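Write out this protein's structure.
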Amino acid sequence: MATKHDYTKDDIRRMVKDEDVKFLRLMFTDLFGTIKNVEVPITQLDKLLDNKLMFDGSSIEGFVRIEESDMYLYPDLSTWMVFPWSSERGKIARVICEVYTPDGKPFEGDPRNNLIRVLEDMKKAGFTSFNIGPEPEFFLFKMNDKGEPTLHLNDKGSYFDMAPMDLGENCRREIVLTLEEMGFDVEAAHHEVAPGQHEIDFKYADALAAADNIQTFKLVVKTIARKYGLYATFMPKPLSGINGSGMHLNMSLFTESGNSFFDEKGEMELSQDAYYFLGGLLKHARAFTAVCNPIVNSYKRLVPGYEAPVYVAWSGSNRSPLIRIPSARGNSTRLEVRSVDPTANPYLAIASVLEAGLDGLKNKIEPEDSVDRNIYRMDAEERQESHIKNLPDTLHNALKDLAADEVMKNALGPRLYQSFIEAKNLEYDSYRTQVSGWERDQYLEKY
């Protein structure tokens, strides 16, 4: 994780002077998880620190209409960070901001504010923190002479391969070193199963910091890849016939006394809280899929045969179900949701899985029995006997499940939910009216 600091305004002013910072990059996230930033000269620092810096919210996807466009950026000083790379005119520092309305209220259409709201629900339920350890994967493609991404992968490597097969190794190494310079505690970095595919895992952090870290991570990966003439993409399935990119989320709830998922006397050394939380995740899985797998292409990854989960089930011993219980116990006891992909808006995805788990705790939802055999080898009848449901197979079906689930709608809040549903239905409609090359290849000469 990137180390969290309790910086004061004076700390920030001192660091600006010491590091010769000339520009401020004020970052926030739109509805779709895209990082937005307003870059201002350092002369605007006092205005920012006094929460008086404005921007036009009407130009941001899913934010506001023209007639209510003035919004304020309130900096979260704990996210202050000077980028290790600099422009010719001096260093650039970034700070992640929350979006506020002119009357000084948190803007409900800001995904980060929404996660803060859901974390308040968690605290009311008696917990102190929700820890998230993400495992984001990405592909590296070569770029052409115009600096545009091609579909040529940077290598022919496979899982844990070393150079010379893994030509992305130097790029990946620099990404890791840059992340460490920025305060990340990188736990592992390796080549993934598919050619050109990479994974970098960093230490868990509390939910808000973890979502911030995911956004920072994406920015670093894309920036460093360009230095190597490579294009990094977090698209789940850029090529047919190979594994897609996921972003497994490892999660655990803590109280003052430690990890509330651990109980050395419980079955599998899991507490009753862990089982209720798991029950909530399983109950709402089909509905949170729209949020955790939010683009048309996400569903090209969620198909049998490529390690991605397709079925709503859990296990402590095999990797085919949606939720796995990694073997570590004590403070490392956790649940791993394996369906999430890196196109998910991390603030919304984490809010949705947390709200699902909290519903399990509130309503004492017991999970179905674990499935400790390979689900891909079970036929439909066997799956039905084990009460195993499928995950939605298209964005359209996932949106229908989301619309039918009040708990998941509450996880987004009315404003974000409405904007999300409208935008995603438009996206799916645009997709289904296109005629693909596959269709022409299959049908043009046949009919």
